[in-house]
Design brief:
- The structure is a single chain.
- This protein is α+β, with helices and mostly antiparallel strands.
- The protein has one domain.
- Helices cover about 15% and strands about 25% of the residues.
- The chain has two helices and eight strands.
- Strands 1-2-7-4-5 form a five-stranded antiparallel beta sheet, with no helix packed on it. It has a three-stranded antiparallel beta sheet with strand order 6-3-8, with no helix packed on it.
- The longest helix has 27 residues, at about 1-30.
């Protein structure tokens, strides 16, 4: 009897061992269900592009106190929104010379007025007025008018952002002060009036500018703009002999 019981226990243990091995075999060959489909990535670059009209401006037969202006139109022909700027050049020193007019001239770009144009105060932020030093007895400007804060025409003026295919127009204008009465200036080119006791010398050259477009939020001065990078200009311009602090009114 004892021998028989031992054999049955061995047989039972052997059976349990077989079951254990078989269960392990089933688990090791299992897998999740899956599927896949092929795909491809393609694309193309967008464009930044504009068309303009009216950008060539001729202020003819100007009279003191009379404003002349012309409308310039810019059209976004690119594929996305674009930030639009007016950028004045200074290769011929005309821009720095215009900024030497004091209260004898004022410039207008897209409704913003820049007057008391001066390049005598390099600490001024471009286009932002500052108070010039007033020595005793010099509290007035031309023709006895009161002095106004010094200002100047910025090198870069942001106009706004255009959506694709959007078109927008803005004005560029200029006026000589009503106090301009120097006979030497009569008949002279707008940017080439003769210097005299009451009138500053400015370059007999065109005031050159460009209408420029950039991706929204991109700094025009960024080095990543490559050939489109705008080189910053700061007044006064070194070597510009027309920079004359005595002309500030």
């Amino acid at each position: 009897m004892e021998i028989h019981l031992v054999r049955k226990r061995i047989s039972l243990l052997a059976g349990v061992g077989v079951v254990t091995v078989m269960s392990f075999a089933v688990i090791s060959t299992g897998a999740y269900f899956t599927d896949s489909k092929p795909g491809a990535i393609t694309g193309n670059l967008g464009t930044v592009a504009i068309n303009t009209s009216g950008q060539d401006i001729n202020f003819a037969n100007m009279m003191p106190g009379e404003t002349q202006s012309q409308t310039v139109t810019v059209h976004n022909t690119g594929t996305g929104p674009e930030d639009i700027y007016v950028v004045f050049k200074n290769d011929n020193l005309a821009w720095s010379a215009v900024n030497n007019l004091g209260q004898y001239g004022k410039f207008m770009v897209a409704g913003k007025v820049y007057d008391n144009l001066t390049n005598s105060y390099p600490a001024l932020t471009p286009g932002v007025a500052g108070i010039p030093y007033q020595a005793p007895g010099t509290e007035t400007g031309p023709c006895g008018t009161s002095r106004i804060p010094a200002n100047y025409l910025p090198h870069v003026v942001k106009l706004g952002t255009l959506a694709p295919n959007q078109q927008w127009s803005f004005d560029i204008g200029f006026q000589f002060s009503p106090c301009l009465s120097d006979p030497l200036a009569e008949g002279a080119p707008v940017w080439g009036a003769a210097p005299s006791a009451g009138f500053p010398a400015i370059a007999p050259m065109p005031l050159e500018y460009v209408v420029a477009a950039f991706q929204p939020g991109v700094d025009p001065l960024s080095p990543f703009n490559g050939s489109g990078k705008i080189t910053p200009l700061v007044l006064p311009i070194p070597g510009d002999t027309r920079t004359n602090p005595g002309n500030l009114q």
